[in-house]
Design brief:
Strand content: under 5%
Number of helices: 16
Shape: globular
Structural class: mainly alpha
Radius of gyration: 17 Å
Distance between the termini: 28 Å
Length: about 290
C-alpha cells in the first residue's frame, strides 16, 4: 500500500496541471486516495482479516470524518455527501481502485482477494463497474506479490478489461476521466509497461489524466511486484528526474515517514480520537484532531 500512497503524493500536483515534459518537478501531498487506503488497512486491523461491508464502511467513515476539512483531500462531491450519510451511492468512479490495495495484501487466495474487493466496493461503489475495478486491482496485487509475471497478470486483467490496450496506445492520446472504466485499464497498462515502482508512477502521471488516482492505482500493483524499498532512498527522486532542493526532499521523506509511523501505530494500538494527529507531518493545513 506504500506504492498507492507514493503514487498519490507524486500525482497530487498534476491532476489539473498536467506535465508537459518527461522530467518534471515534484511537490506532492496526500489526498483522499491515501487517506482511504489507510482506512481500509485500519478495517483489517480493527475487525480482523474478514471484515464485512458494514465494517469497511465504518472504517472509511471514521477516517473521512477526521480528514473532512483537510483541503488537500479533494473529496468528490458524492463522497463528501457520503461522509454525512455513509450509505453506498452507486459510484462508477475510479476512487475504489485507488484504495482497495490492502485487500490484495491481506488475501490468502485469489478467491479471497476478489471477495474482499467486492465487500470494499459495496460500501460506496456498489455498481458492476465499481466492483469490477476493485476486483481487478486486488487480484493484480495478489498475483504480483505471489510471484506471477507481468504477462500472467496482464492475461488475467484482460478478463476484466478485454479492450485494454498497451500503454503506448494511451500515451499522448488519453483524455482525462474519473470513471473507472476509462482510467483503471489505463492504470493497469501503465504498470504492465513499467520496470520499477518509480517508473510506474512516473508513467502514470505522464498520461495526463487523473494523475494522483491513476498513479496510486498503478503504484499499488507495482509495489507488490517490485517491492517498496525505493521509497526509502534516493532512487525514487533520481528515477523521477527530480531537481529538488534539500527542503523539498526532506518534506517528501517526512511525509512518507509519517505515514509509515501512522501505519505502525494503528498496527499496534487502537486508533484513538487524537492519535492520527501525533503522526501527521508538519503542514499549516494539517487537520485538527483536538
Amino acid at each position: 500500500m506504500y506504492g498507492a500512497i507514493l503514487g498519490d503524493i507524486a500525482g497530487s500536483e498534476y491532476e489539473f496541471d498536467p506535465v508537459t515534459a518527461k522530467d518534471f518537478p515534484f511537490h506532492g501531498f496526500i489526498t483522499d486516495d491515501s487517506i482511504l487506503t489507510v482506512a481500509i488497512q485500519y478495517a483489517f486491523i480493527e475487525y480482523g482479516l474478514n471484515p464485512t461491508t458494514e465494517q469497511f464502511s465504518k472504517a472509511l467513515d471514521k477516517f473521512a470524518l477526521k480528514f473532512k476539512f483537510y483541503k488537500g483531500a479533494g473529496w468528490g462531491a458524492n463522497f463528501y455527501g457520503w461522509i454525512a450519510d455513509p450509505h453506498p451511492y452507486g459510484s462508477k468512479g475510479n476512487g475504489i481502485a485507488s484504495h482497495v490495495s490492502p485487500a490484495g495484501w491481506i488475501a490468502s487466495s485469489e478467491q479471497e482477494a476478489l471477495q474482499l474487493a467486492v465487500r470494499i466496493a459495496n460500501a460506496t461503489h456498489n455498481t458492476d463497474e465499481g466492483r469490477r475495478a476493485a476486483k481487478a486491482i486486488a487480484l493484480a496485487i495478489y498475483m504480483a506479490r505471489n510471484g506471477k509475471t507481468k504477462e500472467e497478470i496482464g492475461k488475467r486483467m484482460k478478463e476484466f478489461y478485454p479492450t485494454m490496450e498497451p500503454y503506448s496506445s494511451y500515451l499522448g492520446h488519453y483524455r482525462y476521466s474519473e470513471l473507472a472504466e476509462e482510467s483503471v485499464p489505463q492504470s493497469i497498462a501503465t504498470f504492465l509497461d513499467s520496470n520499477s515502482l518509480s517508473d510506474t508512477i512516473k508513467k502514470a502521471i505522464l498520461l495526463k489524466g487523473d494523475a494522483d488516482t491513476m498513479a496510486a492505482i498503478s503504484g499499488s500493483i507495482a509495489e507488490a511486484l517490485y517491492g517498496s524499498s525505493a521509497v526509502e532512498g534516493e532512487a525514487v527522486f533520481e528515477a523521477f528526474g527530480l531537481s529538488l532542493d534539500s527542503n523539498k526532499v526532506n518534506l517528501l521523506r517526512s511525509t512518507l515517514k509519517s505515514f509509515k509511523e501512522l501505519l505502525l501505530a494503528i498496527g499496534h494500538f487502537k486508533l484513538s480520537e487524537s492519535s492520527i494527529g501525533d503522526y501527521w507531518f508538519s503542514r499549516e493545513d494539517s487537520p485538527d484532531f483536538k
